[in-house]
Design goal:
Layout (H helix, E strand, L loop, with lengths): L5 H12 L5 H8 L3 H13 L19 E9 L4 H9 L4 E6 L6 E7 L2 H12 L4 E8 L10 H10 L1
Antiparallel strand pairs: 1-3, 1-4, 2-3
Helix pairs in contact: 1-6, 2-3
Length: 157
Amino acid sequence: MGKLDHADLALLSALADDPRATVVALAERLSLSRNTVQARMAKLEKAGVFLSYERTIAAHSIGYPLQAAISVMLRQKELPDIAPQLVEIPEIIQAYGLSGQVDLLVHVACRDARHLFEVDARILAIPGVERTETSLVMGEVIPYRLRPLMDLARQER
């Protein structure tokens, strides 16, 4: 997909304000036809603009109050074999491949410190993983957000 135009950014901004808004409500808010909004939504979805329709649920609400960031150092050539094994660990809620000294940053949610120790041991047991460093998440300072970036993109258009 090429660059997003002003209408696409306005639509995304409206969705950021109200993620559960209906197509009709979005059309009314943006002064566009329902068909236009539906077509743009389909175009954006096909282009991979929407990461997920899954609701974000607080891990603590389902019994996993301890979160940590685990830096994983591994043998690079084995990453294609390591990634599917990490997917099988349910406590891993997100992982990023990085450049630099750390190869992966893995975000986990656990019941307590003992559980975290067990999760770290499972990661270390994967062939190709050389070592890990664990940092406890003390609190969310800035939640995932795109609103300021969308506002900047709209100003630059």
